[in-house]
Write a structure and sequence with these properties.
It is built from 5 helices and 14 strands. By secondary structure, the chain is α+β, with helices and mostly antiparallel strands. Strand 13 and strand 14 form a beta hairpin.
Amino acid sequence: MPKSPLPLARPGKIIAVGLNYREHADEGGVATPATPVLFTKWPNCLIADGDAIVIPDGVRQVDWEAELAVVIGRTARGVTVEEALEYVGGYTVLNDVTDREAQFAEGQWSRAKSYDTFGPVGPRVVPAAEIGDPQLLAISARLNGEIMQSSNTSHMIHSVASLVAFISSRITLDPGDLIATGTPAGVGAFRETPRFLQPGDTICVEVEQIGALTNPVAAESNVETAAH
């Protein structure tokens, strides 16, 4: 199980955004949402750069999602789009690992995206002042060195500022809360030949100016055997 320290304090809330890149909505065959689609990942899922994504026994459709993640720096409630970025403390990288079979069968997303180890985050948190405009960052995912996703945060439907404003209009954002801002096209489930994470794989998610978040993939049964 995870042994490396997280690059941030464990957040009280992880608020994730679905379908926030038009290309990802298109590949999934769904309409582009007019307002942000929000769900949660539970904090137990978080692991650090280098820790293993552990696939539970019997789970067959584990997918990756490269995302820019926002770390809230101070309490935000009812902030405007114009002032929203003043409440961002920093940025990091998150891999929104997902059990697609459970996600599609259950009709809600949180459980399938919150299994233990299904939230790699890191490799570091970069202060917001060092990033500047969060809508100008290259974002990618590589599976065993092969490019799966390659896009730019400029393609987000709802910007970081608009997301902070939208969420804070009804939900108080506390320091340390994490917002996962959505993923571009190229996830495994919607490829012409679906492709999912397998034990022995390595998945690397990278965001410009932040760095590469790299995690091996392991089977639960192998991890338990090694622990004993």
